[in-house]
Each structure stands twice: as structure tokens, then as C-alpha cells.
Amino acid sequence: MVSAVAVIDENDWGTAATGVDPLGDPILHTRFALPTRPATFLRRERLVQHLQQALKTPLTMVNGAAGAGKTLLVADWAAGLAEPVAWLTLEAGDQRPGMFWAYLLHALRDCGAPVPDEIGCPAEATRVDQRLLAALAAGLSGRDRSVTVVLDEYDRVTAPEIAEQLEFVLHHAGPGMRLIIVTRTEPMLPLHRYRAAGELTEIRDAELAFTPEEAVTLLELHGLRLPVDSARGLVERTRGWAAGLRLCALAAQESADPERYLKEFEADRSTVADYLLAEVLKRQPEETQNLLLRVSVLERFSPDLANAMTCQSDAEAILAGLHRENAFVEDLGHGWYRLHPLFGEILRAHLRVRLPGLEPELHRRAAQWLRRAGLLPETLAHGAAAGDWDFTAGALVDDLAIGQLLTGLRSDDLAGLFSRMEAEAATPATVLVRAARELSSSDLDRGLAHLHHAEELLAGDAPGQAAALLTCALLETLAARLTGSPGQAEKAAEAAADLRPEVPAHLLEKHPELTALLLTHLGATRLWAGHFEDARAALSTVAGSSGGAATVLPREESLGHLALLDYLNGWPGRAERKALAAVSETERYSLPQPSGSGVERLVLAAVAVDRDELDRAETLLDEVAGLRSAVRDPVMAAGQAIARARLLLARGKARAALDAAGPAVPAEVVSPWAESHGALVASAAHLAAGRPENAAEALRNVADDQPACAVEAARIQLAAGDPRTAIELLDSVRGDARIGPAVSVRAALVRAQAAQRAGDTATARRLLAQALVDARRERLRRPFRDAGPWLRPLLVVPPLRQLAAGWLEHGPVEPGGPVRPEATPPPLFVEDLSGRERDVLERAARMMSTEEIAADLHVSVNTVKTHLKSAYRKLAVNRRSDAVRRARDLRLL
């Protein structure tokens, strides 16, 4: 059976039909013609292929907003069919059944469809005889050619009886009729039955939207070129709306900079505004227009919120109707709606013209409703837009949400929002917000001034202040962390614990970041004061907590500080694992890297120095120094200074290391570990520069109750010629449970060196073997470099050399041995150079030629060459310059 296609559309032009309508007026033949496609029309194959399914189902619906491209899509598809197409464009006058069926019958006859003459035409505008409909259905079903009828602008027909009649004819015509409906609204047809039977083809608004790639092609048809990335922004703003894209393209053609226009055009001053105001807004009744204008200030809205904006009670029905009509009101689900972005822009501009001065009041109404609904982010946005800063800051503080200003995914947005706060606002809440902003940017003077002012305003027993006082306690712990004041931090933490029962439990559960931040600041302050176990208790609580994105940065910081604790106790492997866990914590939420204070990267840099991975250490320290949002507390300041100084010292830059370790860190309380580690670096730098007296003097500032510091001090004392003091220091930390491999390796090396000096080579070898075994697991290379040349003769012994092979020296890696991420360094230990080999290398270092060296040493040139070859072999090099460089690295010259 061959199909004929009939399409009904109220706006298109067609071939003239004879006769008059039931009112006696001439039939308007222009309503039967397929619309003409413009030269810039883009045929989209994905939609055409979907529309091809219309030939396989009795009913097809193309449902979309005004200007979505429905009519042109169907017209282009219909024009390509081999069989005849009946097209009817409906008008408002077609609400009467007689008028509707008169035009439909003329459309069928106009396209050549087989409609028997005896069927005739309705004589009355308001009714149609059921026998006519039955005869039409029977006539269509009995033909050998089916008819496809397409009705455009069907949304203009709202009479239920017409829908019933149309469904009657479609059902009884059977395969003799195919119906395509082009509409802005859901037609009053039993779509569910056709859908359930698989007899309905649907193309809706979302599918009609242009993709970025299609938008690029459309713009090219208008003579414009736009990259896909830029087109993606345009499509997002227009939601792929066909008419919007075409109108933007036409306007851009007149612009001096089309690409910039398409990125930045003002919707309210464009032809898009004219189209939407005429085709959407002005077609609505007055009360609907009023609602649309008032909700235009909202990102999303529910019927109840819309009622609050209009002071009416009919929003639910209006919004549901607007969505059904595809009137640029999108249903978000769960009772929430939003306006199409361009429509919203245009309505806001129209609101300012039509109802000037009303916008702040609308934002205030929205903020109050949203606060009652518990929707804080939107409450703050509308409170700020209304310029009501007392209300906005009060909402943030009363909700216990001040932590969101200090951390989390919304901190930058909130900081920007409150940066507009007027200076006149001086309630406790506004002052607390100012204090939080200043302290979060490490502006201590201004932050503390605001905090003390807020505390003065909150003094007394006024009810309802628990949230504000708890916010004060949080900011006090932050201030204590920034100033290195452990007493202040403990006092604030106790105050917070006392206040927690006075605030609603659901607020504490809603804002886990408040507790996480308080404990993180408390733990960091305890760490600074050297109260390591107390610090670990607070930090571990945060690190092991949940809370999702709200607490991701406190968890990162707590893990980073726990890593620092492990490092300071000599456990580099544990420290590295915690530091990497801290990094992955932020990566899970796609936060900028690096983020937070950067303490975890500081720890990774310190571990890299211990492993002699100096380039990696420098890169990590540079990342920490470049952090824009880093918390500038004493822990970070001291840690950066010490790590940088140790790196410089490892590179042989003693003077620079001394300068780096020298600056004092401003803090209320002196940190024992920071002072001790700084003094150790300074002492080591003096020793490397040949100033043993200065080195010994610096050691006076080293606390002897920290194993890591005591062991390092012992190494320096031994190097300075005081083995007795060195051994006493080592004995003082023997058996300490806190000692990790980084400490035990250094302690074993100091004891081994002392034994070697005392002539006890067997003990020295045993201790060295122990150090190599412990260091291999952690890949600790720096302690052996720092030990000096006394190790070289011991490592010539095969068992010890085998323990060093593959990770400390060149050689095969033993099964299961760790693999160093960087290139293998030069051998740390070589056979001792003979005195004559050193003489030759010293002169080679002065750029003397072979002949000049021979003359200076009163030996032959061949003897000089022999000594050079021997030195090359011992240093594992092939050239003179490499031999000189390596000998210097090993402090042989």
C-alpha cells in the first residue's frame, strides 16, 4: 500500500483550494502549502532519520517551543517524500469543529488525496455530523493508498471534541491514514495508548535543540565562523534554541566583531528579546506575565516560592501550564522550575522597565522564603542581591555555615559575595564574617580586630547567641593557629565543647566542616607547640571522618600534618603514604592542584631530600611557595625554611642554607622542634663551611628530648671532634618507641663512625650493615652522603657493597629491592684514591694540561695518564671533567 502524507500547519503557504468555509468565507489556500525553507536552513540528518519513523506509526508528534524549528523540520522532510502531502496550518478560528473539518477536508483534496465527493463538507461552523466523520474514515481505510495528514500549530486547537473526532477518524481509518501533529503543547489525544502500543513517534524540545557542532554549521551558512568550544558556550546560553541561534547569527552579521558579539551579546537588546516578548510573554494573560516577570530574578523556583513573589496562590497551575505549552519554563523535577536562560535575561530587563525599583524587594522576599525552606546558598545569594547584609550575614552565622567561607568548594564564591558587603553593616554577624574573611587570607591584624569587636558585641547573656559564639570559638582557633598560640587554641576548643549542646544537633550534622576546621586548627597549633600525641589525636579525628566535599580540605590538611608528625619522628615511608593520601583526597573532588596549605607537599619534599631526590624536592618546594591560598601559619613557615635549607645544604650551598634557616618565625610560643631543626641545619652548615666552633655553638639551641634532633646533634658533635658527647646523646634516646628508621639509620651511622675511629672495625661494619638494611627499605640515601668519606673503605667489603648495590651504589638491584624514580645517581662510595691520584685530580681541577701536571709533579706524562685512568675507574667515569666533578661531589677535593 502506497502512503500519501497530509500535514496540517497554520503558518504555511500552499496551493489554492476551491469552495468556501461554513461561514461562507473563501477557503484560504495559503494554509495548505508547505513552508518555504530559507537559504540558511540546516537539514539535520539525525532528526530526519527519526522523522522517517512517522511512516511506520499511525501517530507522530513533534512537540517544541516557539522557534524550536518544528515546522521547518517537518516541511523539509515532507518535501522529500515521493507521495503527496496534505499540509494544514491551523488558526485560532479552527476551534469550532465545522471549521476545523472543512479545512482538513480541503487540505486532503488539495494534495490529491482520495476523498470521495459524496463526503462533502460541514455546513455549520460549530458542529460536524458524525456520519461525515465515519464516511471519511471508511473512505480512507478502503483505499489502496494511505494518507498521511500533518497538522501544524495544533496547539491552537484546544476544543476537546475536535481531539475526540480526530482520534475517531485516525483509529477507524486504520492503515489508510498517518497523522503528524506539530505543536507547542501536549495534544488532547490518548497518547499513552499509542505509546504503549509502540504506535507513536515523538520528537520533543530536547531533541530539537542544536548541538554545538550543528550550531557551527548553521553559523557557517550565515557566513560566520566560530570554534566548537565557543559555539558550545552559545548553545549553552540559548539551550540550542533554533530561533535564538538564527537571530543571533543575523545580528552578528551586522557586528564589526561577530565572534565577540556571539560570546557577549546582551539578550535584552537584541532581536531575540523582540521575538520572545512577542511570541511568548505577550501571548500570556496579565497574571501569568506578572508571575514570569517576578520569578525572573530566581535561578529556580517552586510554586510556593512563586506565590511568595507574587502574593498570589495560583502559581502551581500557571507554571504547569507554561511548561506544557513549552513557554520557555523548564521542569526540573520535584516541583521545581526554571526559565530558559535567554528568556530569564530578557524578563529581568523588562522587569526593570515595567516595574522599576521592585527588584531588590523581590530578592528580599526570595531570601526570606528560601531561609525558611533551609536553602542556604540561594538565601545568601538573594540576600546579597537585595543589599540586606545584616540578614545575609545573620543567615550564614545562624546556620553555623561560617566554615563554608573558610573551606570547601564554595569558599571562593562566598568570599566574592561578601566582598561587596557595605562597611556600615555592624551587627555581630557582619563583623564575624569580616573577621573570617581577613583571617582566611592570613591578615592577622585586621582579622583579630574584627574578631575582638564581634566578641564585644556578643558580650552578655542575650538569648539565641550560641551559633555566633560557636563561630567565635572556631575563629579563635584559627587565630591561635596563625599566631602559634596553643593556650588560646585550647581555651577556644573548650569553649566550643561547652557551646555545642546549646545549638541544634541538625545544624552540626549539616555542617561537619565546622568541627573539622576547629580540630584541624587545634591539631596544627598543638603540633607547633611540640605536643605531638595530643596533636595526633585531634588530627586523626578529622582525617578519619566523613563529610564529603564539605570537609575535603580539612581532611587534606589533617593528613598532611599527620604526615609531618611521622616525618619528625623519623618515619619517612609512613609520612609519604599519608602525604600522598592527602593529595588524593583533593583529587577525588577535582580541586585545583596543589590546594590547601600545601603541608603534604612540604613533607614529600623533605622525604625527597632524605632520599637524595633533590630535583623532585625543589619542584615540590616551589609548588608550596606558589600556593595562592596557603595558610601562612608558623608550622608552614618554619617547615618551608628548614626544608629549603636542608635542600641547599645537600646541594653543597652552606652559606645559602644558613641564610634560609635563619629567619625567625613570628609566633607567641617558641616551637621546640622548629627551633631545634633550624639550629641543626645551621650547625651542619657551619660545619660544612669549616667552622666547627660555630657549629658547636648552634647546637646549644637543640632540645635533647627529641630523638631525631638528638641523633643529628650527635653526628655533628662527632664530626666536630667530640665523640663522648655524641655517644651520650645517642644513649639518651636508645629504646625510645618513637624512633623511626630515619633516626635509627643515622644513629647507627654515628655509632659506626665512632667505632671506626676507635679502631673497632668489626663493630663499625656490623652497625653499617644494620643501617644499610634499614635504609634500603625506605630508600634513605642522604644519611650516607652526609656521613662523609670514612664509609668508603668499609663499603669495599663485598657483603656491605652488595647491601648498597642497586639503590645506594651502581650495581644489580636485588630481588624485591625498591626502584628509584629518578635516574641512578653517581656512586656514593668508591675505593680510596691514592695520594698521587688526588694530586693529579687537584691539578686537573685547575685546568692544567697533562704535560703541565707531569712537569709540576716531576713525573712522566705516561705516569699522569696512568693515575688518571685509575681515578676514572674508581669514580666510574670516562672523562677528566666528570672525574673532577664527581670527586668534588664526594668531597675528595
Describe this structure in words.
The structure is a single chain. This protein is mainly alpha-helical and 893 residues long. Among the domains are: 2-208, P-loop containing nucleotide triphosphate hydrolases (Rossmann fold, 3-Layer(aba) Sandwich), CATH 3.40.50; 266-377, Arc Repressor Mutant, subunit A, CATH 1.10.10; 401-529; 704-811; 835-889, Winged helix-like DNA-binding domain superfamily/Winged helix DNA-binding domain (Arc Repressor Mutant, subunit A). 59% of the residues lie in helices and 5% in strands. The protein has 47 helices and 8 strands. Strands 1, 2, 3, 4, 5 and 6 form a 6-stranded parallel β-sheet that branches. Helix 5 links the parallel strand 4 and strand 5 (177-183). The protein is elongated, with a radius of gyration of 41 Å. 48% of the residues are buried. Mean pLDDT is 86; it is low at 1-18 and 810-824.
Q: Could you list some keywords that capture this structure?
A:
mainly alpha, disordered N terminus, 6-stranded parallel β-sheet, 893 residues, 59% helix, 8 strands, elongated, Arc Repressor Mutant, subunit A
Q: Uncertain runs with pLDDT below 50, 5 residues or more?
A: 1-18, 810-824
Principal-axes geometry comes out as: elongated
How does the major sheet shape up?
A: 6 strands, parallel
CATH topology of one domain, which one? Rossmann fold
Task: Compute the number of strand runs.
Answer: 8
Query: What is the CATH C-level name of one domain?
Result: Alpha Beta
CATH superfamily of one domain: P-loop containing nucleotide triphosphate hydrolases
Beta-strand fraction estimate: under 5%
Overall helicity: 55-70%
Question: Which architecture name of one domain does CATH use?
Answer: 3-Layer(aba) Sandwich
Number of helices: 47
Radius of gyration from CA coordinates: 41 Å
Chain-averaged pLDDT: 86
Given helix and strand content, the structural type is mainly alpha
- How far apart, in Å, are the first and last alpha carbons? 102 Å
